[in-house]
Amino acid sequence: MTAQLDATVALVTGASSGIGEATARALAAHGSSVALVARRKDRLDALATDITGAGGRALVVEADVTDRDQAIGAVERTVDELGRLDTVINNAGVMLLGPIVDAPVDEWDRMVAVNVQGLLYVAHAALPHLLEAADSGKRRVADLVNISSVAGRVARSGSGVYNLTKHGVGAFSESLRQEVTGRHVRVSLVEPGAVATELTSHLGPAGQEVVRQRFNAIEILQASDIADAVGYIVTRPRHVTVNEMLIRPTEQEG
Ligand SMILES: NC(=O)c1ccc[n+]([C@@H]2O[C@H](COP(=O)([O-])OP(=O)(O)OC[C@H]3O[C@@H](n4cnc5c(N)ncnc54)[C@H](OP(=O)(O)O)[C@@H]3O)[C@@H](O)[C@H]2O)c1
User: Fold this and answer.
1) Distance separating alpha carbons of residues 100 and 106, to the nearest angstrom
2) Shortest CA distance to 30 belongs to which of 91, 92, 86, 93?
């Protein structure tokens, strides 16, 4: 890979596994320094060791993005220790599927807290720094990439509140895009289909059954497939924005 992101700094939420981990590796391979944000510090430490071992620069930031002070602290630590902020990948998320009727409401609270509030807290804290990078950085452009889902486009029985959170991410991203694109902060929405990660490991039996019925017979995506897409988005020339990218496994119909 070419080091197109040399001298830039990225922050990736949910970097301890799956899409976030793969994206942090991809951005580091493009030459960016990366702040790795999540709660599982041991996983972040191992990833940072890999990235630095490959000649990159990584900062481990243990934080729960649902806590506003911790989300702000993650952004501020990144800027304090890595010097600036050019790229934010708002990726942390949970998917707790199952019927709405008689659902455990604490699962809804968790999804809204991580997928919506956590994403908003990080975006709000990061935007002044992204605007500054776009205004005065060498590249004169900055990126905020929000990870949504096919579930942000299509609602289905069995995923109502996950659908709600991801549709919300899409609406927020489009509104913010219009607000800041004239100042060269590019807001992009990535909508993966089924990806082989730990996302489904938090599901109870009802949710596992929904996933089994939908995806057991097909070859699903790897986290690196989504990381490739994010790498493409953030390495475009200044005058090009990829507003939205919907990426399904070839065999995924809906
Ligand atoms: N896998 C799929 O099929 C798929 C499809 C479409 C969209 N997505 C989206 O892709 C994103 C990444 O998911 P994934 O598939 O890579 O799943 P994953 O392997 O379970 O990764 C989720 C990440 O989010 C982090 N996270 C969860 N709660 C957090 C919190 N309160 N504070 C900080 N970090 C938190 C986790 O880290 P800690 O637990 O260490 O905090 C983990 O690093 C999510 O937004 C998901 O909705 C996934």
Assistant:
1) 12
2) 86
Q: pTM of the predicted model, to two decimals?
A: 0.98
How far out from the chain centre does Cα 33 lie?
16
CA of 94 to the centre of ligand 1 (A): 5
91 within 8 A of 147, measured Cβ to Cβ: yes
20 lines ligand 1 (CB under 6 A): yes
Tens digits of per-residue pLDDT, 80-100?
A: 999 999 999 999 999 999 999
Please enumerate in sequence order all residues whose Cβ is within 8 A of that of 143, keeping only pairs 6 or more positions apart, or say none.
86, 87, 88, 130, 185, 186, 188, 233, 234
Chain segment 8-64, per-residue pLDDT in tens:
999 999 999 999 999 999 999 999 999 999 999 999 999 999 999 999 999 999 999
Nearest CA to ligand 1 atom 20: 199
User: Catalytic residue numbers?
Assistant: 162
Find the 91 Cα to ligand 1 centroid distance in Å: 6
Which ligand 1 atom sits closest to the C-alpha of 221?
3
